[in-house]
Specification:
Chains A, B: One of its GO terms (molecular function) is pyridoxal phosphate binding. Two copies of one chain form a homodimer. Chain A has a seven-stranded mixed sheet, with helices on both faces. The first copy, chain A, has a three-stranded antiparallel sheet with strand order 11-12-14, with helices on one face. The first copy, chain A, has a two-stranded parallel sheet with strand order 1-13. Chain A is built from nine helices and 14 strands. Helix content of chain A is about 35%, strand content about 15%. At the A-B interface, helix 1, helix 3 and helix 6 of A face helix 1, helix 3 and helix 6 of B.
Chain lengths: ~375, ~375
């Protein structure tokens, strides 16, 4: 089989150009006599790779100077613990409360993990609506003095995406940091980092390989940790050591750096947004006009990255997936908690991939409708 | 430059065969239409890679059935916190003591991190001897009721290695688990896992890329965690989810799996031990007979993996390193805390690499002695 169109939710498809370059450099990076995987993280070669990756990411996302870019490990699930461990240290026990807005499987997990370290106030939840919509900020019931407010701005499993940024100042909490899990849509479009205290995400959707966690933290939040926070996960320590307090996942950072360069060659995040919008419109447009398939998420918040959809006749699911596989359309099965299908169409998915999927949707509808 | 001999302490040289195979499979693994980095960790392709890696490692190390192999993240430095968080939960505050044997920079860090979670008793330390020897077990002053006893069986920075296994039963503590940081010599020779409660290590020396932590835990120790232990680092959760509670570092596991297969093709750990012994004897033999170089570690515990050495005339250090680099002998500079030089000669370093190093040592001695 040649390269297929891979709709995995993560780890996910990477640009072929990136993988090609990585393959070519595997045994000898730029004449160094060794591959990137074999380099001391403190040697000049890897230091240059790390510095370039940080600079490119800072440029792509227009990260303000008062924010630090941290490369960590453990994915968003580990960071769900690392966040409260880093943000609650300045508060006495009785003031350890954090607010969570629950909009899908990922924010459910985030708030659950935070309960190890603090009281959690669920400011809003759409669980009763099966996570098919976003609660407007007017619906939120924030607590009076939360240490932070947490949102997941794109729910990978439920396919719900924020196209607006919460405003805690408007809610009377101007000094409370907004913390966002951006794992599955970061770099898909421009983002105003200055609206957040912390953004974080696993790399394995839009950035690079799994095993790398990206955390971007505002300076004043670096050093509020609880004593139980492991040193390797203390943001200030990570920042002061330029993400090298412990040995970083060097190869994953290298691949992420190649992705950042690829994004720059493609015109940056505004260009990616245009392409991602076109891809999502093509796919949702077809699904909306079909009586054979259906989607569940409200139109104003359906994700451009993760598109869950269903066959009206679910007995055809296996036939659908087998046919997709035959046509080189891979990993379309929906998450077990939602069922049906899910097409994840991250940056690395070209328009042709979505076109091929829509062609198949049409063909399958014709032959089974 | 073609492939050099890379003496990095870690991330370290990998077998060229492994990198070659990884490069060939980068865009399309076994006809899957996608590379390993792009596979869902829950798909059949990656599941087979993971299962094979675990089975091969179990075979290589003869891991007993009552031990679980966990693939984690954060390296040994993170695990230094994860260990006490996992082993102290069954004890009330006043019984939270752990014993540490301090034999170099790594065990210094381990005991320091543990103090976040428990009282630490330093059972022995060779700091006064600048970590150039190992304290015999008869020198240890164990506490009466430690939750565990921690050793680092190969100190990467100081070049000190245990060639014996501590015996806690003989010390009157038959039920206390022995915990060992084996980062920098695991897989260099056979190891009797049954003598330990937990062994752990970062992969980036003898296993594969950085960003992967190997933890092997006896069943009865899986579920003793403190409430503050993040779920993603709770051994029982990791074990029950087959190292996939959070998205594992899939590509690092794949490379580790290729290394395990390479080790099996080479004859397993007994064969590696013979080769590693020959390499170490060649290098130490030359250094011992030279009046130009010196080593500092006692002969009965000098590491076969990490060989720190010094030029008597340290003003020649930079000239030495520049000449080495010209000859394709890379990353020989010693750790800043020890100074001088360090040759790390892990499994992937062939005998020819050590021969080339000794040839250079001789040549440099002749021209500068």
């Amino acid at each position: 089989m040649t390269r297929a169109f891979n709709f995995s939710a993560g780890p996910a498809a990477l640009p072929a150009e990136v993988l090609q370059q990585a393959a070519e450099e595997m045994l000898d990076w730029h004449g160094a006599g060794m591959g990137v995987m074999e380099m001391s993280h403190r040697g000049r070669e890897f230091m240059s790779i790390l510095a370039q990756a940080q600079a490119d990411l800072r440029e792509l996302l227009a990260v303000p100077d008062n924010y630090r870019i941290l490369f960590m490990q453990g994915g968003a699930l580990a960071e769900n613990a690392i966040i409260p461990m880093n943000l609650l240290g300045q508060r006495p026990d009785e003031r350890r409360t954090a607010d969570y807005v629950v909009t899908g499987a990922w924010s459910v997990k985030s708030q659950k993990e935070a309960r190890r370290y603090c009281d959690v106030n669920i400011a809003a939840s759409t669980e009763a609506d099966k996570f098919t919509r976003l609660p407007a900020q007017a619906e939120w019931r924030l607590s009076k003095d939360p240490a932070y407010v947490h949102v997941c701005t794109n729910e990978t499993i439920h396919g719900v995406e924020y196209f607006w940024t919460p405003d805690l100042a408007a809610a009377g909490l101007p000094d409370v940091p907004l913390v966002a899990d951006v794992s599955s849509h970061i770099l898909s479009r421009p983002l105003d980092v200055s609206r957040f205290g912390v953004i974080y995400g696993g790399a394995q959707k839009n950035i690079g390989p799994s095993g790398l966690t990206l955390v971007i933290v505002r300076d004043d939040l670096l050093d509020r940790s609880l004593p139980v926070c492991p040193t390797a996960f203390h943001w200030k320590t990570v920042a002061e050591n330029d993400s090298m307090y412990n040995t970083p996942p060097t190869y994953a950072i290298y691949i992420a750096g190649l992705v950042f360069q690829w994004l720059k060659r493609r015109g940056g995040l505004a260009a990616m947004e245009a392409q991602n919008k076109a891809k999502a419109e093509l796919l949702y447009g077809y699904l909306d006009n079909s009586g054979f398939y259906r989607t569940a998420v409200a139109k104003d918040c359906r994700s451009r990255m993760n598109v869950p959809f269903f066959l009206h006749d679910e007995t055809l699911n296996d036939v659908f997936l087998a046919g997709a596989r035959e046509r080189g359309l891979l990993q379309l099965k929906g998450h077990k908690s939602v069922g049906g299908m899910r097409a994840s169409i991250y940056n690395a998915m070209p328009l042709e991939g979505v076109t091929a999927l829509v062609d198949y949707l049409r063909e399958f509808e014709r032959s089974h409708g």
